[in-house]
Design goal:
It is a single chain. The protein has helices spanning about 1-25, 30-50, 55-70, 75-80, 90-95, 100-115, 120-130, 135-150, 155-170, 175-190, 190-205, 215-225. The chain is built from twelve helices and no strands. Helix 11 (about 190-205) packs antiparallel against helix 12. It is elongated and about 60 Å long. The chain is mostly helical and about 230 residues long. The chain starts with a helix and ends with a helix.
C-alpha cells in the first residue's frame, strides 16, 4: 500500500512537471503579445504629444512610424534593421535620435524584434536601454526581459525581473501574467515556497484576474512537488 502511494505521488509529480514545462513552452511569447498592445498604445500617445514637439522629435517619430508598420506586419528583421527604400530601422533611429521619446520607444521595439527573431541576448540588452515610468509600458519591458533571460536559461534573473514587473505594474492585467510565469520558473528551479508565494499573490491580490480562476491548481502542484 505504501509502495502504491509512492508510485502515485511520483506520477503526480511527473504530471505536474510536464504541465509546468508545457505552460512555459505555450506561453513563452505571451508577454511579447501583451507588450505589443501596450507599446502600440504608448506609440499613439507619443505621436500625439509630438504634434507640438521640436522638429527633431517630429522627424524621429516620422521615422519610427514605418518601423511600427513593419512590426505590426511581423516583418521583424526589416523593422529592426531597415529596408532598401528609405526606412532606417529601429536600431538606427534609437542611435540617431538619441534623447527623444521616439528613440526611447525605438529601443523597446528593437528589443521585441530581437526577441521575435530568437536573439534573446540582444533583446535583453535593447530592452534594458528603455527608460520609462509608465505603469504599463515600463513593467512590460521588465517582463519581456524576464522572458528573454528565461529563454537563455538564466532563471534567477528571469524570475527576479518577472516578480519586479508584477510589483511595478500592480494591476489585474499584467501582474498576474508575470507572477504566473515567475512561479513556473521557480517551480522549474525547485524553489517551491517562492513559487507558492507568487501564486498566492494572484489568488489573494489579483483574484479578479483571468489567471486567478485556476490558480489553486498551480498552488497544489507546487505543494505536491515540494513533498
Amino acid at each position: 500500500m505504501a509502495e502504491q502511494k509512492k508510485t502515485n505521488e511520483a506520477l503526480n509529480v511527473k504530471e505536474a512537471l510536464t504541465q509546468s514545462e508545457a505552460f512555459l513552452i505555450k506561453n513563452k511569447k505571451a508577454i511579447i503579445g501583451a507588450v505589443l498592445a501596450v507599446i502600440i498604445i504608448a506609440a499613439g500617445i507619443v505621436m500625439y504629444k509630438n504634434l507640438y514637439a521640436a522638429p527633431r522629435e517630429e522627424k524621429a517619430q516620422a521615422a519610427l512610424f514605418k518601423g511600427q508598420q513593419y512590426f505590426e506586419a511581423d516583418a521583424y528583421a526589416e523593422a529592426l534593421n531597415g529596408d532598401s527604400i528609405g526606412y532606417a530601422g529601429f536600431l538606427k533611429i534609437a542611435d540617431e535620435y538619441s534623447g527623444t521619446d521616439a528613440a526611447n520607444l525605438a529601443k523597446a521595439y528593437a528589443g521585441l524584434c530581437y526577441a521575435h527573431l530568437g536573439k534573446y541576448e540582444e533583446a535583453a540588452k535593447a530592452l534594458d536601454g528603455f527608460s520609462g515610468k509608465d505603469q504599463m509600458v515600463a513593467p512590460a519591458m521588465k517582463g519581456a526581459m524576464g522572458n528573454c533571460y528565461a529563454q537563455l536559461g538564466q532563471l534567477d534573473k528571469a524570475s527576479s525581473l518577472l516578480l519586479k514587473a508584477a510589483d511595478e505594474a500592480d494591476n489585474n492585467t499584467l501582474s498576474p501574467i508575470y507572477l504566473l510565469q515567475a512561479g513556473e520558473i521557480l517551480v522549474k528551479q525547485g524553489k517551491y515556497d517562492d513559487a507558492i508565494k507568487a501564486y498566492a499573490t494572484i489568488k489573494d491580490k489579483y483574484f479578479r484576474s483571468y489567471q486567478a480562476m485556476d490558480i489553486d491548481k498551480y498552488i497544489e502542484q507546487a505543494k505536491l512537488m515540494k513533498k
